[in-house]
User: Fold this.
Amino acid sequence: MIRTALLPSVCAGLLLLASVQADTVYRWVDAQGHVHYSQTPPANSKAKAKAVDITPPPPDQTSLDQTQDMEQAVTDRQQAQQALAAKAKQEADKKAQKQKACEAARQRVQRYDEVNRVAHKDKDGNVVYSSGDDLVKLRQQAQEQADKICAAADSG
Assistant:
């Protein structure tokens, strides 16, 4: 895209450079009818040489305006793409933070289970909590909080 934006400027610069360094070009037709172009007139005096003006005309205002419009359109598109990329990165960062918070909440619940031995599994593999214990309430609150945080992280 950068190349597209620079192309009109480069072309204009080359045309300007060419006009500054332009020499006289001679055109002549030899005895066999072949047309020749050269920066020096023919050596024999029999051929009639004619100077040809090769200086390019200056660009018209419409062409300059169109070039500027194209350059602005490319710049605008690049800025829009950068803005979209930045927004996508922010959303990805936000989602990663939510996932991290979810994992931390799940770890808190797991620590309640491990450290305080609030929950245990019965012979069928079901989780059983001790009744009437304040730690059970804290663990349940942590589980509810973890569920809420993780639900928000999963929804985007």
Q: What stands out?
A: Confidence is low (pLDDT under 50) at residues 17-21. The longest helix spans residues 61-115.
